[in-house]
Amino acid sequence: MTASPSTSSGDKARDVEKGTSEAHLLNTTISSLSWSSISVTTTKSSPSEILHNSTGIVRAGEILAIMGPSGSGKTTLLNILARRPLPSSLSFPSTTPEICLNGSPIPLSEFESISRFVEQDDALIGSLTVRETLSFASKLASRQNGRERLARIESLLDSFGLQDQADTLVGTAIRKGISGGQKRRLGVASQLITAPKVLFLDEPTSGLDAVGSWEVVRYLKGVARRNNLIVIASIHQPSTTTFNLFDKLLLLSHGKTHYFGPVGEVTSHYEGLGERWPVHVNPAEVLLELVNTDFADDKTEARRRLEERQQAWEGSDRARKLTADVASQPKGEVVERGTAADKKPSLPSTVVTLVHRSFVKSYRDVVAYGIRLAMYTGLAIMMGTVWLRLPATQESIIPLTNSIFYGSAFLSFMAVAYCPAYLEDYMQFIKEKRNGLYGATEMILSNFLIGTPYLFLISVVFSVISYWLSNFQPTAKAFFTWVLWLFLDLLAAEGLVVLITSIFPSFVISLALVAFANGLWMSVDGFMVPPTSLNVFWKYVFHYWDYQKYVFENMMINEFSERVYACATTESGCQCMWQTDLADQCLIRGQGVLDQYGYKPGYMGKDIGIMMGIIVGYRVAAWIVLKLKK
């Protein structure tokens, strides 16, 4: 059957689009990346050398493997080449080395705009599809029209063999997604869609089998060749087929270079040193055995031979030629001045993109808010049926007080369930911040905006169920005041989670510290020990900036300030547990209950202002923490 003209022309348009859409990856400005004499030492009282006099050059279209045994300095060198800050435990013994593009050093801001780094444990959002992951990465990196962005996405899906998985979820803890090798390819593609000219990868084959490792490196090599990119990867122990895909090899041991040059010439280099090269053996395994002394029977002899090999490299013609090549690099212009489409998106645009991404995550990943909504709904049902239809009598006053404390305190305490969801966002933020996509301001704003509607929904659902079942003050004003304070309580509790988890991005540590902090706030909020009896240390150091204090106090005022309760009647007459001006009517005015806590109505506006200050304070503190994160 002959295709209709419209269909045929549409197919041709798509073919043309795919054929040209990889043009954004093409590198026409960077011819080489070079470095020389990089040395790094520890900052201990007796410094030890991590890297010694490392020199190298990688040209456009080449893919370099940095290889060596554990502790050889691979990751340290890779981070230095990517212009990442050194940890405080390491330092340069002299001046900071220059990393040159086209023979010239360039400012860090310009380097970040043309380079990307793929982490060893690359953070991907499991509740997004493969196509969505690339789409959001593109929106965060640059301004483009929809047609151009779609063309780039489809091109990368084709280039990395992910077209069949384009609409498959990456995978979450409770829902299986794409394979490990596909995740690695997606991690690389999500960086390439931002059109870098230089790509760094830390152990891209770690955790993959031989086939998975080979396919990741094969796709990398193909993209680098087609688009003239510079690719540098640290790698541990590749298979023979994977090893042979690399163009160049930098072999390290104890921070010193043992070989730098074409992969195909490493065998002849060691044979020239008198080493017997076994046949039918993975060359990467042989090289690692030659430069590893950790498992030698005679470590002294092994270190001596290792030092001889390293000195032989330093005196070799290859080493002298490498030094000359680096020194003779012609200096040239580096960064092309991009069009408007290549400019970074504005702060509002970035925040909108992050909110959109978080929204997709929140309704697909039950860990984000679904589990919490279920937990709070269950708690509301439990509370409403335990404190069921309490009558307006003095016997209900203590149970009502307990219920107010329990509801507000445990809603706050259960905010710890947000820790794992925020940790995933945090790891994504650190990766994207290091790659120059956005900063702490966008992260904090988007996190607050996406969480606020869900927290309000939780407050309403919890209140609708528990408030009327327990028979709190049955007025619309009192109900909506209750909802308001629950909402502020949850906003403050989530702000506390964001702050503590940003400081300690470990699930166990953040969980323990958030639980401890909530335990502290419960102890000094005024329920366990009334403010009139709380000792001065806890009162003035913690009580007044305990957000649970303001929630409990205003919920108590909401319930008791405008309500009366019937006293018990016995044969001997009326017996009131609290003596108020209504005792002669056998009633208790609710204010009498508040007086024992020192609570008085009329300060709700002030207390809301204080709560807003605490909520904003937690977010600003988290912003400062994220701003300082490297």
From TrEMBL:
TM stretches of this protein: 366-388, 403-423, 444-467, 479-500, 507-524, 608-626
Q: Which organism is it from?
A: Podospora australis
Record bears the keyword Membrane: yes
The entry's localization annotation reads: Membrane
Please give the name of this protein. Answer: ABC transporter G family member 15
Q: What is the lineage of its organism?
A: Eukaryota, Fungi, Dikarya, Ascomycota, Pezizomycotina
Biased region (Basic and acidic residues) positions are 11-21
Q: Tell me where in this chain the ABC transporter domain is found.
A: 33-279
- Gene Ontology MF, one: ATP hydrolysis activity
